[in-house]
Amino acid sequence: MRSVAAIATVCLTLSAVAIHTTSADAGEPAWPTESYRYTIVDQDLGNVLQEFGRNTGLRLEVSPEVRGRVRGPLPELKAREFIEHLSRNYGLDWYFDGFRIYVTSNKEASSRLVQLGAVPLQRLEAALRDLALSDARFSLRSIKQADMAMVSGPPQYIQAVERTLAALKPRADQPSSVTVYRGEHVQVVKLNAPGDVP
User: Fold this and answer.
1) Does an H or E element contain 187, and which?
2) CA end-to-end span of the chain
3) Rounded CA gap, 3 and 139, in Å?
4) What's residue 28's pLDDT?
5) CA nearest 104: which of 160, 49, 141, 55?
6) Which is nearest to 154 in space by CA: 196, 99, 92?
7) 38 — phi, psi (to 5°)?
8) Hey, which bits of 65-136 come out as E strands?
9) pLDDT digits over 19-45, tens only?
10) CA–CA dist 103, 92 (Å, integer)
11) Please, what sign has the CA dihedral across residues 14, 84, 62, 94?
């Protein structure tokens, strides 16, 4: 006999739920359009989220720090509203990196200083948007009179910002200047760093 868990009735068309990020919905998966109905008596929160991912076809990774019990009934909601409902009621964050939805406890969120160096904040923000990694729910702001920024959010968002910034920075083996010899005259020409105005 099956244990007391959940009987999931999924009102979805699975052929329509492959994950693709569009330029219009940067930072968002292709949410199923139909409502998600999930009948539950008493179930582990992490299992509810895993079932949600399986039933909708959304790639989902749930942190071990996500804990708690869900006791029904749950409202019938659209997929995004469903995960937002759980996030509000159980203290969760979710972040989509263009491939997978990461669900974490909001206790795992943090703030971190990052060294911008030669990369203007506007260029970093533009790259994050182009890569569909930006998320307006989380913070990325510059520090006045310093080439630094403060990034705040769940671990995967902070990692995405740090990796994108690292990719934008000049390589260590890229010369910052060249020496030009013209007969007896020597001229040192500074090379423009990415984002510098010539």
Assistant:
1) strand 185-190
2) 74
3) 43
4) 87
5) 49
6) 92
7) -135, 110
8) 69-71, 77-78, 92-96, 101-105, 110-115
9) 333 333 457 899 999 999 888 889 999
10) 7
11) positive
Nearest partner of 74 among 62, 96, 90, judged by Cα: 90
Helix axes 45-56, 79-90, angle to 10 degrees: 170
Residue pLDDT, tens place only, 40-89: 889 999 999 999 999 999 999 999 999 999 987 888 999 999 999 999 99
Left, alpha or beta for 132 (phi > 0: left; psi -120 to 50: alpha)?
left
What the block records as the tokens of 9 is: 């009735």
Contacts of 164 (CB under 8 A, 6+ apart): 124, 127, 128, 131, 133
List the one residue out of 179, 169, 61, 174 whose CA is nearest residue 124: 169
Structure tokens at 143: 């520090």
Q: Give residue-wise pLDDT tens across range 142-166.
A: 988 789 999 999 999 999 999 999 9
Which pLDDT does position 72 carry in this prediction? 79
Q: What is the CA radius of gyration of the chain?
A: 23
